[in-house]
């Protein structure tokens, strides 16, 4: 109808539209639009006469056309308010100002609500990230205290699964030319060789890799700039790892690399200590022996073994003298 057409015009102009309707009455649409142009709706001002109608036969004709009682319709038309046009248009302008004020308040309220929602969302994200990081960081004690590398790595992976769900995991370590799994945990859908193919992609990578439509995450294990291997995590369902997941699990990869480094350092230390204790025992035994020749023989035997030599001789300091041993 004519009111719909007027509202469309108001939407386009962002100003009130005054029109004469098909029934011969005057009406206005006032857009509820904010200063930044956001439209919330419209006011319909209501129909008026600019002056009292002298002839109401037209209203009776309209009543006959639409099937209404002519007397009742004519009486209703005569009862419509009469407002001089200048006064009416001034009131519509005032209503337009009021509508803009209402719209500005609504727009500000929505903006504040959006800021509040953003703040609440950011607070929730911060709380979640803090909980995730605390869950991962709580496993640091395992790295220094764990005597069994496999058990330590398994617990680190289990802790990571509680923060970022995944279906399978594997840890591959580099030992010289050998690149072998120390842990493969899966429900049977993926075998070790399939994990190896993904892990191999991360052997010399600098950052975590999202592979297989982001359902496989390969994290290089690096400690002090030295590549140690790779941690591979998989999801079987069509649910990709996000960038946030990758960042969190990269921390887990660093923990696994540190655990491997600590385990290797512990093994090296134990091996050196065992060798030192063995040498100390031999030296003590040698010191207890009275026979100086036996001591010299034992020393020469140790020198031969240490240097991988074929034989050895102890020469006197005087030139031309024969070897003692």
Describe this structure in words.
The chain is α+β, with helices and mostly antiparallel strands and 325 residues long. It is built from nine helices and eight strands. It has helices at residues 2-13, 57-66, 70-79, 85-137, 140-145, 149-163, 192-201, 243-288, 292-307, and strands at residues 17-20, 26-33, 39-44, 168-175, 178-185, 209-211, 216-223, 226-234. The strands form two sheets. The protein has a five-stranded antiparallel β-sheet, sandwiched between helices. A three-stranded antiparallel β-sheet has the order 1-2-3, sandwiched between helices. Helix 2 (57-66) packs across helix 3 (70-79) and helix 6 (149-163) packs antiparallel against helix 8. The longest helix has 53 residues, at 85-137. It starts with a helix and ends in an 18-residue tail after the last helix. The model has no long low-confidence stretch (mean pLDDT 79).
Give the secondary structure arrangement, pairings included.
Layout: H1 2-13, E1 17-20, E2 26-33, E3 39-44, H2 57-66, H3 70-79, H4 85-137, H5 140-145, H6 149-163, E4 168-175, E5 178-185, H7 192-201, E6 209-211, E7 216-223, E8 226-234, H8 243-288, H9 292-307
Antiparallel strand pairs: 1-2, 2-3, 4-5, 4-8, 6-7, 7-8
- The end-to-end span amounts to 125 Å
Oligomer type: single chain
Which percent range describes the beta-strand content? 15-25%
Could you give the order of strands across the largest sheet? 5-4-8-7-6
Order of helices and strands: HEEEHHHHHEEHEEEHH
Number of strands: 8
Q: What would the average pLDDT be, to the nearest integer? A: 79
Describe the main β-sheet briefly: 5 strands, antiparallel
Approximate helicity band: 40-55%
Low-pLDDT stretches: none
| Anisotropy-based shape | rod-shaped
Derived from helix and strand composition plus strand pairing, the structural class reads alpha+beta
Radius of gyration: 45 Å
Task: Give the number of helices.
Answer: 9
